[in-house]
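Study this chain:
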Amino acid sequence: MDNNRKSHLWIPDEEVQRLDKTLTARSKPRNISFAEHGSKLSQSLMSVKTALESVAPDNSLADADLLIFNVELPEGEKIKDKKDIFDATGMRIRAVKNTRSAIVTATASQFEALHRRVNNYGRNGTDRTRFDYIEDFKPYIGSGKNSSELAKQMSKEIPPATLDIQLMLIPNLDNSLYESALPKLIKKIADTDGRIQQEPYYLSDNTPVIRAIIPSTSLVRYENDPAIYRIEETDFFSVDASSISTVDLSALTLNESIDIGELPIVAVLDSGVAFPNGLSGIVIHHWLPVNSGGGNADHGTKVASRVSFRYIEQSLPSTIITPRARIIDCNILDGNVPVNVFIKRIQEAVETFADIAKIYNLSANASNPIEGDEMSIVGYELDVLQLRKGVQFVVSAGNHNLWQVESSLEDILDDDDSRISAPADSMLAIAVGSIVGVDHPNSLSKNNDIAPYSRRGPGFKGCSKPDLTAYAGTIILAGGQPYVPQDPYSLLLSNGGQLVPDAGTSFSAPVVSGDLAEILNEIPQRDILLAKALLYHNAIPLWDGEDMDDAELAFAHNIYGRGLPSVEGSKYSSFAKVTFVRTGILNKTTKERISIYMPEILAAQTGRNVARVSVTCLSSPPVDRTKGTEYLGAYIRASLKKSHADGMSLVPVNPGYKEGRQKWDVCQQFTKLFSQLNAGDWQIWLELFSRWEEEHLDIPYALAVTIEDVSNTLDVYSEIEVLNRYRPLNTLRIRLDNQQ
């Protein structure tokens, strides 16, 4: 190891205080007239019943003795805090639309009982503790079920004649109800000149979805079907690679000094991989899903070359190149693949290879941007796979074509159509955008700008996306035709053994997949959450944040993510930069205070901004697509406490920005510069907040904290090392009981 390459330091259990957390919940009384409010609620219930009766011919649950309607709470109240209201009144929550809106069911007798109780409330105030906190009842029928893209299509002066749609049923019903509703829904599709596309499929939460092509004139029949929860256009996933061959690479061979069997493995979910004979040993398996003929390996080979060789042009003119990762070729893209087939193939690949591959590169996106307040079907399914199988997806942010019609990068970024596309909204996947690494004449993007085709954030519910960026090629319009100029970041290995230029976020994601694989190979027991935390923690920002405000920093994050990955910084500390790491679990009733040591040599420094402390806490919380904007089940808040001059007490540290510390995100990350500080024990405080789960649901986390001498001259590492409180990461096996 290089003399300045130091192992990160593991924070042992002895440096952690685990404290009990007291749970409190308070309701604010409402100053309203129960008589007026009761009359309003009674009329609303009557309107619900009348509306449902009016659409009875289209109700696929007509035989089920079940009324489906919407309940709204007042501003400031949350469904999660009022579950007792629903339990006590016979309403069952089936799906949550947002913080204060839920889709519920009640039997006919329960509905009538509810109506009687509402009338009693309006007469004498009975049940004020419940009905005061229900703002309104509404029917759940109509065009509000449609996705924004579908609504856009239907608002055209001449809507399309047919629609390829996904019909999602009300979640969380009993299987018997689905078995009753599905045949009626399928019959309605046939009766209205529609066509079922494949059999109905089930999401991971057991919600049935039917893909059908219907006449647009019949859409209202599904909008008014109480059994339908959501209607959206069918997403298709495909890859497009077109380029001109430039240099023959068929003579390339692998560096024989590298033990191929020791390299980490990345599964490439793409159109197939066909390396030249001299490099074929990198691909350890070629796999096809059921009922697929496989793709042509054009796009997939380019993607895989980035995983294994990063920027291959930088290894030339030598014909001997050094790989960094092995490839499992999962050939799942054989044309335009609809979302239901796409998901099934991804699930099949992960099920087949999860025991040997923890990283999955997926460089395929839907063509339309995300809505933002509803997790995409495929984004949700990726999250579930990551939680159940302990794997990590790295996905492209997606490409758009606005560069063909806009005259400036600013105009592109102002256009809502440049927002990320599914599955880049996945909360647990690493979404990767592209930046340009070389100036080219007539390119809308200059060096270190977001690429003109690369989609930007925000992601789901305003969360920062993409997560990272990597260099890739740019696209220029020349004579009205798209053209990818050659540079070190646009050149890739093609399936014909050629070095060719191409551009797209497809070729940035695999850079990060390979980087993560390199980092993972250095982590004891290949802990993927810790490897990911180090990847995020050491990303190199592409902006100077000193004079930025929160809004400007949020904008930068939604273009560049956390910045460029740094494999070196993620794998090693140095004498002037020490990273402490730890993995563990938290639940709703516990919190942790984790000690790190600030050395005397750094505290003795004088001047402006002499030390930097950076904190990254990454968690792996549960997800639930039926909870709407409340999709993420928990988050962990991280805060920093510094040593007081008295050597005994601790003082809170206020980071300069809110960005990176948002609620209900999987990552808490911040950096603070210090001009004056005290030596001794500092602490990271971790506290978990959850929405829906039982109190003792354990959430895994990975923590990275770095203490850095800004001048890069002081040996901070040695002073911490001699304490013998923290062990070098490369000398230990992480005990499994830290994650129980």
